[in-house]
Amino acid sequence: MSDHQVKRVGVLGAGTMGGGIAQCAAQAGCEVVIRDVSESALSAGREAIESSLARLLKKDRITAEDREQTMSRISTTLEMGEAAEGMDLIVEAIPERMDLKVEAFSFLGANAPAHAILGTNTSSLSVTEIAAASGCADRVIGMHFFNPVPVMKLLELVRGMNTSDETMDRAKAFGDRIGKESVVVNDWPGFATSRLGIILGCEAIRMVEQGVAAPADIDRAMELGYRHPMGPLKLTDLVGLDVRLAIMEHLFRELGEQFRPPTLLRQMVRAGKLGRKSGEGFYQYGG
To answer: What is the pLDDT of residues 174-222, one digit of tens each?
Structure first.
């Protein structure tokens, strides 16, 4: 096994997932460079990290010095090359579109150091297909984090067809370092978590569509009866109805009828009811 320890981390995408991954890496002592396509996205990402750290400070989970040191380890850039050059690990957390991921990994394969792990935070797309674009598929691995990244303990590591044992071992070691518990799955549509989570959400939406029960009662049943921290419809609102629809459509194509998106979900997305980010989904948010 290589002795390359992860000291420098590049993160592609300053959104909710990318920012959370960057925060965890910086808190663990890594130097982090976040790349996104606009200064506004980078500023919003940095502000979100600062807010997250402020909450941890308020709860006495970190010190003021911890917060300052964490932020000092994070820099931002508009140039993908700066998030690749000299990195030991690069994690892609860009929108869930295969064309964008293929483009990113083609660049990373040509520009990242030869020892760097290339991770994708995809929740359902083929790691094997993404890896093929890099020209160094042995170093590509699925690193599926969960929202909010600083809080959620799980890291789903997805082995592509050509992912090497060394890459898997180094990814596990990084997960341990940032306080995550890893599960390992093989590359299959939806992996383990998305496949199970989506089918539960899909069925919950069908139950609303059929008038079986109100959203709040369906969610409460799962929270109280199965000890889920959040019901499937609240989770759908949190993730975004448009995001869930895209994943369902992908899994429907790959795995079949059980993942066919409910008509109600399509109608809500067309109406702009996307969940928390739009102010309305299965629940109302804000004013």
So the answer is: 999 999 999 999 999 999 999 999 999 999 999 999 999 999 999 999 9
**74 bridge partner residues:** 32
The Cα 112–Cα 109 span in angstroms is 6
Least Cα distance to 21 among 125, 94, 78, 93 occurs for: 93
Q: Residue 61, Cβ neighbours under 10 Å: how many? A: 11
**DSSP letter at 238?**
H
Could you say which DSSP state residue 132 is in? H
Rounded distance, CA 109 to CA 111, Å?
6
* CB contact burial 126-162 (16+ within 10 A = b; e otherwise): bbbbbbbbbebbebbbbbbbbebbbeeeebbbbbbeb
Can you give the pTM of this predicted structure?
0.91
- Could you tell me the residue ranges of all domains in the chain? 8-186, 193-275
Q: Do domains 8-186 and 193-275 have the same CATH topology?
A: no
Give the rounded distance of the alpha carbon of 277 from its chain centre: 17
CA 88/CA 158 separation, integer angstroms: 19
Residue pLDDT, tens place only, 102-137? 999 999 999 999 999 999 999 989 999 999 999 999
Q: Which CATH architecture has domain 8-186?
A: 3-Layer(aba) Sandwich (3.40)
Q: Cα(12)–Cα(94) distance, rounded to whole angstroms?
A: 6
Residue 229 CA to its chain's centroid (Å):
19
CATH architecture of 193-275: Orthogonal Bundle (1.10)
- Here the tokens at position 1 are 């096994």
